[in-house]
Structure formats: C-alpha cells, structure tokens
Amino acid sequence: MGSAVRTIFWKDDAVVMIDQKALPHEERHLTLTDYKDVIAAIKDLTVRGAPAIGVAAAMGIALGTLHLADSSREDFKRAFHKICDQFSQTRPTARNLFWAIERMKARFSEAFLAPTDQIKRILVEEAMRICEQDIAINERISMNGRSLIQDGDNILTHCNAGALATAGCGTALGVVSAAWEEGKKIHVFVDETRPVLQGARLTAWELMKEKIPATLITDNMAGFLMKQGRVSKVIVGADRIAANGDVANKIGTYSLAVLAKEHDIPFYVAAPLSTVDVSLQNGDKIPIEERDAEEITMIRGTRVAPEGMHVYNPAFDVTPSRYITAIITEAGVVFPPYREGIGKIAQRPKK
Ligand code: MRU
User: Fold this and answer.
1) Phi, psi of 45 (to 5 degrees)
2) Are residues 209 and 311 in the same domain?
3) Ligand 1 centroid from CA 144, angstroms
4) Is residue 282 domain-shared with residue 250, that is, in the same domain?
C-alpha cells in the first residue's frame, strides 16, 4: 500500500512539506531551510495531524541544529535544547510532537561526545528514521484495521487522519484505503470539521484522489444520518491516548462517539503507539489546545460574527474510552479493557 501524497520529507538539507493551507485549490510543496519556518508551519497548520507534526518537529530540530555555529560543547548543547523547547511550544495536544522531541534529545545525548559535525548528521539521520518509521507504522495500522471494515460499509470520519496527517498513507484513512484496495465496496461520509475544515478541504481531497466513493456533510448532520441507519462505522484518528484508552482528537469527536453509542454503531480509533501517553492515567489531564478566535469568527477572510464577540475555540476534545469499540495500532487491535491492552503494547520512546 502506498500513498500518492508526499506530505513531508527531507531533501538536500531542507524540510519539504505539502502546503496544507493551499489545499484543495492548489497542490504545492514548500522547501524550508530555516527551522523557525518549520515552527511557524506547525503553528499555522501548514503541516498538521499528530504524526506529521512529530515528523516535522524532528526534521525541524535537525535543521536548526545543522545550522548552529561552531561553539563550545556547552553552548552547542544549550542551543540544541533551546531549539527543542521552541518546538515543544507549538501544539500542546499532539503527543507525537513530544514523543519526537524526546527521541531527538535521546539521540543527542547518546552522541554528545562525538564531534559536533557528526552530531548534526546523526540528528538528520534520526529525523529521517522517524519519518521512514511513520510510513511503515501507517502501513501496519492500515493492514491491522482493514478486517474491521466489511463490504457495504458506510464509514463516517472526522477531521483528517489520512496521508496528509502523517508521513505515510494515514491512520484512520489508511484503514479505509486498505479496505478499498482489498476490493471492499465502501462509502465514506466526511464531516467537514469546523472550524478549520480539515474534512472538507483535506479528507475530501484525499478520497477524491484515491477515487473512494465519499459524501461530504456538515458536522451537525452526523446524528441525523446515524438515525436514518446510513452510517455503519465511525473511524477517526487521535492526538493523544491516555493509559485507560481515553482519546483526544479533533473537536467534535466526542459528540460523534456519544451518537455512535446511542445508535449501536462501532466507533474505532486508529493511531500509532507514539500517540499513546501512558504517563496520563486518563484523559482529564490531556492539555487541550485553544486556537485563535478568528478561526471561528472569520470564514476564508469574511467576518461571520459581530466584531468583539467572545469566542471559545478548543481544537480538541476527549472521548472517554467507554465509547470506543477498539483502538487500531501498528502492534494490533486493542479492545477493552484498554488499561490492560494498552499496558501490554505501549512503548517508551526508542533510542
Ligand atoms: O488540528 P489538526 O488538524 O492537527 O488535528 C488533527 C486531528 O485531530 C487528527 O485526527 C489527529 O491528529 C490524528 S492524524 C493521524
């Protein structure tokens, strides 16, 4: 299974990423040679989706370190950690971001006694490895999840957990593509995903590219469709999964999960183990990013709310694990009780 989209990669000592802000109108790649531009790209959603954010941060850290001037070993170390700190302040909910930063830090301390030029190359290699591993992990998630999809399924998805959200073929959408490639006749309902419209702009674009039958709906239509019996499965990605299986994902996921339970519809989450945060016992302490009010008050440059209106804009919500039928990972499909299942497969960052 491969992906037609190359969301992010390393080329000639630069980070190349598809400009997700320009989609679906224009398919263009940006070549970033300054780590500060990678930070800006993560913050403004040029690159988004938890696994892709992790890869971008790893590459950004490698890029920033590559351009550090010759200095004393202590200054070099201080400058490296300063770069890492700046990345850790970009998007607080995505566990993969912190996982990738921890991996880069671990590699740095292992290599610390080597000449600085060598450390720089080691960090580039580590970032590329994180990227390659994400591609392989996506494939495994897709293969592990495809048997959960049956011929004739109408699958509802929210936000974008496809190739654009990862370095590979995607998580939730990877499962959908794998089922489609197996020859299963499926159809996808795509939630537009207010306020940033990752569903309408990105998931719709990916599904059309792959020629998978799909229908775009607004978020508030999902319940009606479920009541009509038109949705047989829900599958979404995740930004962070606590030790008990509570899942933080794009705002609106929780409502979908409650609706799915009411209508007896299986609700699946697909995510790599790098999204799992075993340091959190449950979802209550998952940090929830709040984004700019203008994402809500403005639509593509046009103001839709009165000037000065108070706005609350959490980018994610937390779905309690009791609403989740199964979590699909690269290590297999985990069913409740999640604490036990996650405990068995959760990994510490690899060195
Ligand atoms: O704000 P975004 O677009 O980064 O949010 C993305 C999501 O919520 C995805 O569902 C999640 O990161 C999983 S991506 C494989």
Assistant:
1) 70, 20
2) yes
3) 20
4) yes
The ligand 1 site (C-beta within 6 Å) comprises 48-51, 159, 161, 165-166, 171, 198, 236-239, 249-250, 315
Confirm whether 351 is domain-assigned.
no
- Same domain flag for 181 and 245: yes
**Which residues have a catalytic role annotated?**
239
Q: Summarize pLDDT for 246-262 with one digit per residue, the tens.
A: 999 999 999 999 999 99
Q: Give me 36's structure tokens.
A: 């500060």
- Do 109 and 168 belong together in one domain? no
Ligand 1 atom 15, closest CA = 161
Closest-lying ligand 1 atom to the alpha carbon of residue 171: 15
- Which of 78, 111, 140 terminates a domain? The answer is 140
Q: What is the pTM of this model?
A: 0.97
pLDDT in tens, 165-223: 999 999 999 999 999 999 999 999 999 999 999 999 999 999 999 999 999 999 999 99
